[in-house]
């Protein structure tokens, strides 16, 4: 990257799992980074470049102060709640922290005339699509409040871009997993619910066992299929998106996935095989809000951004998650 490609960027949620991996890659590329995070699920140690402004996106005056102090060229917006079943039982938390807080941020993006936005969206906006592989123009029909909260945010971003000069990239993440291959950072969310993280906690003895939620789905072994993408491949998509917008590429929506899926049982077997550890797995009823299968079509991001995944291998993803979990438990014990 050329020197004049360096930007001053705001990263909301930069202390969290995905945000912290993106901050690391932004920092390595030489960008000047300010993180806004309320540290509700993130950690200050995970911010390896730039500086933290601790606060909440519900507080518009706080966001306004940060924008007034800095001259941001781009915003990357990660801060959100992401647990599907929690969104079903506590929907207003999601419409507040995800949708309303995105509105707050967009208000400041408009006021301070920020030209570039990268937004963390999700495959959950598609709901239960009737296609084998999901393309970006597959109709949006979320089946849980998490997906709906993100779909509404996407719509606000598109409408604001239409009305102003804002350029946006909406990235629809499939199932993000794994960690930095050197175990410097990784998923450290308390009370994690995501499949690979939960299985790695079983290996570490943090949990005595785990559950498979539903074995009667219309899939090859009856358990849900998801497209697991390594967090550093997802992070590099953000850097490529920023670069593309800066070069005049305009606004885009991209799926972020590898275009293939694994069942819940296949993932758990991989964790057991790579760790050499067995742990109890109970087959139980379906969890609220889970679609059968979600796999991405990713031609658009590959051709438009030239994005090429480096870690498209379930063993690589799981091994990095296992290594990180061991390191994280070691850090917590000292
Ligand atoms: N899952 C499971 N046991 C767990 C956690 C998740 O069977 O302890 C299943 C879940 O029902 C879904 C898949 O694993 O079918 C992926 O769920 P996760 O929460 O990791 O991601 P989501 O797809 O909900 O974003």
Could you walk me through the main structural features you see in this protein, from its secondary elements to its overall organization?
40% of the residues lie in helices and 17% in strands. The protein is α/β, with parallel strands linked by helices and 334 residues long. It folds into two domains: 7-177 and 229-256, NAD(P)-binding Rossmann-like Domain (Rossmann fold), CATH 3.40.50; 195-225 and 259-333, UDP-galactose 4-epimerase, domain 1 (Alpha-Beta Complex), CATH 3.90.25. The strands form four sheets. It has a seven-stranded parallel β-sheet, sandwiched between helices. A three-stranded mixed β-sheet has the order 12-9-14. Strands 7-10 form a two-stranded parallel sheet. Helix 6 (195-203) crosses helix 10 and helix 8 packs across helix 10 (314-333). The protein is globular, with a radius of gyration of 19 Å. Uridine-5'-diphosphate binds at residues 84, 175, 193-195, 198, 210-213, 224, 226, 264, 287, 290.
Which superfamily, in CATH terms, is the homologous superfamily of the largest domain?
Answer: NAD(P)-binding Rossmann-like Domain
Q: Could you tell me the strand content as a percent range?
A: 15-25%
Low-confidence stretches: none
N- to C-terminal distance: 39 Å
Helix and strand run:
EHEEHEHHEHEEHEEEHEEHEEHH
Number of helices: 10
Rg over C-alpha atoms, rounded to the nearest angstrom: 19 Å
Number of domains: 2
What is the CATH domain class of the largest domain?
Answer: Alpha Beta
Bound ligands, each once: uridine-5'-diphosphate
User: Structural class from helices and strands?
Assistant: alpha/beta
The main pleated sheet reads as: 7 strands, parallel
**Count of distinct strands:** 14
Helix content: 25-40%
CATH topology of the largest domain: Rossmann fold
User: Which CATH architecture of the largest domain would you pick?
Assistant: 3-Layer(aba) Sandwich
Strand order, sheet with most strands: 3-2-1-4-5-6-11
Mean model confidence by pLDDT: 96
